[in-house]
């Protein structure tokens, strides 16, 4: 059996397409042998290339996530705190910077099932329009993705109907993630700044 064929049968068994057979066991033996070559047990190795191990195991998939983000700026149940900015706010609030621990829910109501939290920062990054720099981790607390997170770094031109922000990474099941988030405001209180935002996130990961 060539190395290429052995690698393919490992990929198939990860996909669940193949029943466990003696050839799978021998493949796993070869795999563990290969890994012990790729990850030598040595003291003080500064860096190693792991390309071979990654190409053997991983199959990329895309996951669609749908949820609602609650930015509660006002009141005693506020999940947002202003952490920096100029002493006197300009028209757009340029420089105002907030830290959030916002709830993510399954449905648009705040009382709907909580599926995660948006922990991070946003700051007003434009002088002549309402545009934010978003630096956020969305961590999930329900179901399969409990404990996994995706990281967003992007521009949020808040008055647009649909804003696109890059997913630049992730953790847990979203390790090595990349993708994009589409945000659409469903409710905005212009007086307090409280907002409910619908998110559709498309994330490619392994
Ligand atoms: C999510 O994971 C945490 C930590 O492992 C655990 O305490 C919690 O019960 C889990 N939640 C659900 C809904 O499974």
UniProtKB/TrEMBL annotation:
It is found in: Secreted, Extracellular space, Apoplast. The chain crosses the membrane at residues 25-47. One of its GO terms (cellular component) is apoplast. One of its GO terms (biological process) is phenylpropanoid biosynthetic process. It comes from the Eukaryota. Pfam families: Dirigent (PF03018). Keywords: Apoplast, Membrane, Secreted, Transmembrane, Transmembrane helix. Homodimer. Belongs to the plant dirigent protein family. Dirigent proteins impart stereoselectivity on the phenoxy radical-coupling reaction, yielding optically active lignans from two molecules of coniferyl alcohol in the biosynthesis of lignans, flavonolignans, and alkaloids and thus plays a central role in plant secondary metabolism. This is Dirigent protein. It comes from Erythroxylum novogranatense.
